[in-house]
Write a structure and sequence with these properties.
The complex is a heterodimer of chains A (92) and B (484). Chain A is an all-alpha fold and 92 residues long. Chain A has 3 helices and no strands. Chain A has a domain at 5-39. Chain B has 484 residues and is an alpha/beta fold. Chain B is built from 15 helices and 11 strands. In chain B, strands 1-3-2-4-6-5-10-11-9-7-8 form an 11-stranded mixed sheet, with helices on both faces. Classes of the chains: A mainly alpha (92), B alpha/beta (484).
């Protein structure tokens, strides 16, 4: 792995303990060395597959419909005011 | 014969004739749950109050002459499908208290068909695993030997069906999560073609691979459920606009002349000899039914696990970015917003989920995208081409579902790679997007079930079901029950 485990954890938004960092670093390195076997294959002329069925531009008519109500959208919030999700202060 | 031990079609006939009521069936299933659930731990949430209400409604419909296809049939739903007003946890601490404000498309269709929800079943957290040992709550036990795992990630659903704690179940399959537990628990598990069944309301793991399907006591019930859950859904733009066949119409048709491909890459040096023997005996049975076994090659099979773990973890790292402690799910206190995100995710996710998010974040990170993600997508093309080529000459492909029978709890938990290799025979099917089923094909000397996988062409579940039913009816494996 060519990225520091600290940087990777930050990119993944995970605050990890030192033990977890060491364990994951070892395990990820061993999985990546297994994954390296993909390089045995010459894929220079192979198109990548992102999706197995060829659907493109799936659109629907622009018609009004019902959607989730405010109370339903807020009902699982860990913290809220009457109308909003509440989060720790962002702007000083 | 206890009602809980029967399948959908038998119970439907009895309901039709007025021999039993929906209330009787629900009571019987709950009697069974009371007797064995302490041992099996298949469920995360039991929904007795809802079940009784739904059974009452079914009885009203039946009395009024409006019996629906699933009226009064208690089914278990894997706990990664949203059920409105009913806890949906994904077996994760981060969603421990999540009550969905909407219903998934598949369960909406089951409701319209009159089903009774028996409860929500255990899984490896976010469907990441092959044993249910990654559940944030508990490990489900294999009904055939409670020291062993039931397979995963849909281990709760497969164990609930095998232990008769429900009549049928739904699971989801990203790399084998329906088929592998079905094989290890001795039941029928079908992963439909990618795009056949709507994923709306299925908590996303790897969106280009995830697919919902039935886990049942027999092949007929699998066809019945496919008729209900399949079809294009405006709420899922990846569900395919393709006409639906009557999946039950092929049940009972003969399979004379059907060409069944046997890929040499799936019979490996060192595979479990009892699994190999059971599957080879099954090939002979197909031969005696008039099908024609033909050798085929899927030359890139050996690269499937590597490609899968890049693609699945990349998609997972992106999908699981939504768990930020703001709109729903667990929140930890933090110094500031970033600290709150990082602590909520660190405390809410289990080890395997964190490991996969880290791996996926790495393979998608700037500078490594081409080396890992794009490379894996190209290998995915090669694997898909393998199937396209093989299906020019054969109607179906037959393989073992899992290289081993159910393993003991704790046997593979220390080494993630060993656990990943448990899915070696099922992963290619998801990468290619084709449908695959696991059906019982024998037992080991320790009385553990062995499963056989039949893989079909895109959107050709009918041929799979036709062949599966013909095989099932010529064997007795599906009639065996675990001693509990």
């Amino acid at each position: 792995m060519n990225i520091s485990i600290d940087h990777l954890a930050r990119l993944a938004r995970l605050s990890l303990s030192d033990d977890e960092k060491k364990l994951f670093e070892n395990q990820i390195n061993s999985i990546l060395s297994y994954v390296d076997k993909l390089n045995e294959l010459d894929t220079s002329n192979v198109e990548p597959t992102s999706h197995v069925i060829s659907l493109s531009n799936v659109v629907r008519d622009d018609l009004p419909g019902t959607s989730l109500g405010r109370e339903e959208a807020l009902m699982n919030a860990p913290d809220r005011t009457d109308k909003f999700y509440r989060v720790p202060k962002i702007i000083e | 014969m206890e009602l809980y031990s029967l399948g959908i079609s038998e119970l439907s006939r009895m309901l039709e004739k007025g021999e039993v009521s929906a209330g009787d069936i629900t009571a019987s299933v709950y009697k069974r749950i009371d007797a064995v659930e302490d041992k099996i731990k298949a469920y995360v949430t039991l929904t007795l109050a809802d079940a009784l209400k739904m059974a009452e409604e079914a009885d009203r419909d039946i009395t009024a002459g409006n019996k629906k296809i699933l009226s009064g049939i208690p089914m278990a739903i894997k706990d990664n499908m949203c059920t409105r007003g009913i806890l949906t946890t994904c077996s994760s601490k981060i969603l421990k208290n999540f009550v969905p404000p909407y219903e998934s498309t598949v369960t909406s269709k089951l409701i319209e068909s009159g089903y009774v929800l028996s409860g929500k079943t255990n899984l490896d957290e976010f469907a990441m695993g092959s044993s249910t040992e990654n559940s944030g709550f508990h490990t489900t036990r294999n009904p055939w030997d409670i020291k062993r795992i039931p397979g995963g990630s849909s281990g709760g659903s497969a164990a609930a069906v095998a232990a008769d704690e429900c009549i049928a179940a739904l699971g989801s399959d990203t790399g084998g999560s329906i088929r592998q537990p079905a094989a290890l628990c001795g039941v029928v598990g079908l992963k439909p073609t990618y795009g056949r069944v709507s994923r709306y309301g299925l908590v996303a793991f790897a969106s280009s691979l995830d697919q919902i399907g039935p886990i049942t006591k027999n092949v007929m019930d699998s066809a019945i459920l496919m008729n209900i859950i399949s079809g294009r859904d405006p709420m899922d733009s990846t569900s395919a606009p393709i006409d639906l066949p009557d999946f039950a119409s092929v049940i009972g048709m003969d399979i004379k002349g059907m060409k069944i491909g046997i890929p040499e890459e799936y019979f490996l040096e060192g595979m479990d000899p009892e699994v190999e023997k059971a599957v080879k005996d099954a090939i002979k049975t197909f031969d005696s039914l008039g099908a024609m076994p033909v050798k085929v090659s899927l030359p890139h099979t050996g690269y499937a696990v590597a490609a899968y773990y890049v693609l699945a973890t990349s998609e997972a790292s992106s999908n699981l970015a939504r768990y930020d402690g703001v709109k729903y799910g667990f929140r930890a206190e933090g110094r500031d917003l970033m600290d709150m995100y990082m602590r909520s995710r660190a405390q809410g996710f289990g080890a395997e989920v964190k490991r996969r998010i880290m791996l996926g974040t790495y393979t998608l990170s700037s500078g490594y995208y081409d080396a890992y993600y794009k490379k894996a997508q190209q290998v995915r093309t090669l694997i898909k081409n393998d199937f396209d080529n093989a299906f020019r000459n054969v109607d179906l492909i037959l393989t073992p579902t899992s290289p081993t029978p159910a393993f003991k709890m704790g046997e593979k938990t220390d080494d993630p790679l060993q656990m990943y290799l448990a899915d070696i025979f099922t992963i290619s099917v998801n990468l290619a997007g084709v449908p695959g089923i696991s059906i019982p094909c024998g037992f080991t000397s320790e009385n553990l079930p062995v499963g056989l996988q039949l893989i079909g062409k895109h959107f050709d579940e009918e041929t799979i079901l036709k062949a599966s039913y013909a095989y099932e009816q010529s064997t007795e494996w599906h009639k065996r029950k675990p001693n509990l």
